[in-house]
Amino acid sequence: MEEIPVKVAVRIRPLLCKEVLHNHQVCVRVIPNTQQIIIGRDRIFTFDFVFGKSSTQDEVYNTCIKPLVLSLIEGYNVTVFAYGQTGSGKTYTIGGGHVASVVEGQKGIIPRAIQEIFQNISENPSTDFKIKVSYIEVYKEDLRDLLELETSVKDLHIREDEKGNTVIVGAKECQVESADEVMSLLEMGNAARRTSTTQMNEHSSRSHAIFTISICQAEKNTEAAKDGSWSSRQHIVSKFHFVDLAGSERVTKTGNTGERFKESIQINSGLLALGNVISALGDPRRKSSHIPYRDAKITRLLKDSLGGTAKTVMITCVSPSSFNFDESLNSLKYANRARNIRNKPTLNFSPESDRMDEMEFEIKLLREALQSQQASNSQTSQIHREGTPDNRILSLEEQVAQLQGECLGYQHCIEEAFTLLVELKDTVSLNQKQQQKLQEWFNMTQEVRKVIPSSFRGSCGMGNLEEGPQHIRVNQLKRELKKCQVHRHCFYKITCLRTKFIWGH
């Protein structure tokens, strides 16, 4: 498997109105015509993508996310997550707010990706797609199902499947058929997400949220459906994780107290664990050391995305205000370390598909074995029926009776033909050649009439055969059968001659 680095983008939001009113200075700038950012006077960072304060939602999506959608359709797991200080524009960029009220140009990553996914699906009519979505938040280290709020936190568990991928057991997955259905579920989940107002952010996310779109695809097999044959279809299951992380907070700036203060502690604790994972994965010297994924729920959920088998884009959002210099610098440092993380993306063939292949092959073998057994049983049964003396005698008797009936019919025809030939001989004037032919038929008819009485006298004695041994009876029946076949052949020839004569005359 080829290793690829995690792609890292940095987006700098514009100064807010209140920051302008308080005369905050810009401390983070994009170096023109480069992928570099300078913070303060001389600290320079290089990233894969850099977006300044005038960047648009469309620009961010086309540059960072469009390739991920194509990889998703190809069968890879992909992830995009927004990281940064509270109030730096993560939710706006990812598109996790109230999307229904957002104008087209301001829509974030998730709504745009949903539209493109369904557009790609409509352009692939030869493939069957099944799409499911789930929406989970991590609030104070508890998992909450945003699509099924009645689900208890005790019923949601993080597990690893047989391929090592992280899954959430107990989470509701809704099957969808259109982009509108997905948008409706996204809006419903966003409304249920924990948010609150702080001094730093009017709509501050109080939890980490993961919106997941799962796609199962299989090639349509129309030829197999026509001839009814078994044909294995390979299933590919891929997922797109959209992760909106809660922002790091300093209590002195947010002014949080009580419940908000407890939330801040849990948020910062999870982000610290994420930072430690990024540091461990991004440090070549610690490549073989332990990676602390289990220190927090969010790091366990991002295990596939950081150092795993997914294609990942990390979007770091920073504030340009000098008031947030320290937080912005820390965010850039973590983003810079994340560039050293290397993943090993793999195509995700469904385990169920592999098992189906094995089962279909086994079914094919069993069918062949069953057909062979049925053929063997049929031959054995036929041999058994023919081999039984009573059955063999009964079969021969039936054949003799059938042939005798046919012989009686032919005998009647011979008598009529003989009568007709006599009349023709006595009454019709014929030339010499016709008279010779008529005489030949007359003689042949007389010979057949002489044979008939003796043969049927012999056949009438069949009723006495039951008194002798069975093998004698079988031989007698065979002889009678042969006689009847000879007589039937003679009668058939006479009938043909008669027909030819009538038509020729």
TrEMBL record:
GO terms for biological process: microtubule-based movement; mitotic spindle organization; spindle elongation. Residues 5-341 form the Kinesin motor domain. ATP binds at residues 84-91. This is Kinesin-like protein. Its main location: other. The keyword Transferase does not apply. GO terms for cellular component: cilium; microtubule; microtubule associated complex. It is found in: Cell projection, Cilium; Cytoplasm, Cytoskeleton. It comes from Myotis myotis (Greater mouse-eared bat). Belongs to the TRAFAC class myosin-kinesin ATPase superfamily. Kinesin family. The keyword Cytoplasm applies. GO terms for molecular function: ATP binding; microtubule binding; microtubule motor activity. PROSITE patterns: KINESIN_MOTOR_1, KINESIN_MOTOR_2. Keywords: ATP-binding, Cell projection, Cilium, Coiled coil, Cytoplasm, Cytoskeleton, Microtubule, Motor protein, Nucleotide-binding. It comes from the Eukaryota. It holds the Pfam family Kinesin.
